[in-house]
Sequence to fold (456 residues):
Amino acid sequence: MATASNVVKERAGGDEGGGGDADGGCALADDFLPMCVSFYRAAVFWAKVPEIPMNLVARQDRVLLGGLAVALVVVFAKPIRSLLDLARDVERSSGLALVPALIILTVVFVLHLHSRRQEAKVRAAAAEADALQAGTRASEMERLATFGHALGRSLDRDAVRDVAAHHLPKLAGTEDVWVLLRTDSRWLALVGPAGEARRERERIWEHVADRAVITDGSWESNAIAVEGHLCLPLTAGGHPVGVLGIPDAAGPFTDGGQRVLAMAGALLAISLRNAQLFHELRENSLRDGLTGCFNRTHALAVIDMELRRARRSSLPVSLIMLDIDHFKDVNDRYGHLCGDAVLAAVGARMREVLRGSDLKCRYGGEEFLVLLPETPLEGAKRVADTLCRDLANMPIAWKDGTVSITASLGIAVAYPTEIDGSALIGRADAALYRAKDQGRNCVRLSMETALASVEP
Fold:
């Protein structure tokens, strides 16, 4: 600053009689110094706040800013020329190259601001990408949570199938997603696109699922590519449940998509396993463990339900009561283990002979009930005769020999308006005791049923 002041003084005293010019030069210096300080402070301020969003200035505002800059140059043209003259005088007197230095500093400062602006753009783009990815993951988690909640309310296979058919196409991003369940030694289609060639598609899925299991024999829940399909083995608690697959034509499959598919598959596998365990628990609570027939409590409830249904539909319902002849003698002669083997064999034969819709029940001890929905007296008589004959001709292996048994059976037919199951059972029981009294190993009708059958 001292040099600049000296130069101003030299310019003031260079002309004789130029006192007015000296005053003007000093005034000029006094005007420029605050302006330079202001420019310096503004530059320092903008250098310290590079994080200010660049989108504060829109594209349509740049023309306005350019016009403002030109106007400022025009307004301050004379002071700027005077400042440049002052800089040249200082250069001549001191030998310093101020103008080039100022230009270099200006260029460097502008480049620095530009680089900071580019860095801000890169950070903004990265933040936008992170926000987009976070939004996508939040949406995925929301869909998975909805899927999980719906599965949590499903306690049987049919309910799980409905939920999976509704949600899986959205989670997988395609309607071509399919799911096969592993039941015993065969596959059962749970989810898949409908169409005329559904059975052909199921055969393809079964082949692909077999290959997936062979390829991934440990049933690990990792997505694998098998013959044009992306397959995901479904396991729950180490138990194989099934296979979820998507054709490659529905791809490409991103890492995020495969991650969602894996989580959806895990939820589905757990739900299917829970439904399977719930079904087994329910079956065990309703069935007799020795014979495989339903227990008495469940049978009574089903009989009441079928009687009400028959009353509404005016369809016949028949009931057979069966008792193994001389069962106590079998226990006394061969032991209770042999008696258990006899009961198990009778239950197995009843399941083989009777329809799936017929109710097979172990009523108590060696007594069994058979409910025949939509079956008139003639049909019930044929079924009872078949059972009586098959049981008499069924040798039961025991140790080194065989045990033979016979059975007595009683038949009762429900009245058209009957809803009392105990009355129907009572009539069948009375017919059973008539068979016992008349020599055993035979079939008898209840008195009411017999009378109704001979009425004109």
User: Anything to note?
Assistant: Residues 1-29, 49-54 have pLDDT under 50 and may be disordered. The CA atoms of residues 67 and 300 lie 96 Å apart. The first helix runs from residue 2 to 13.
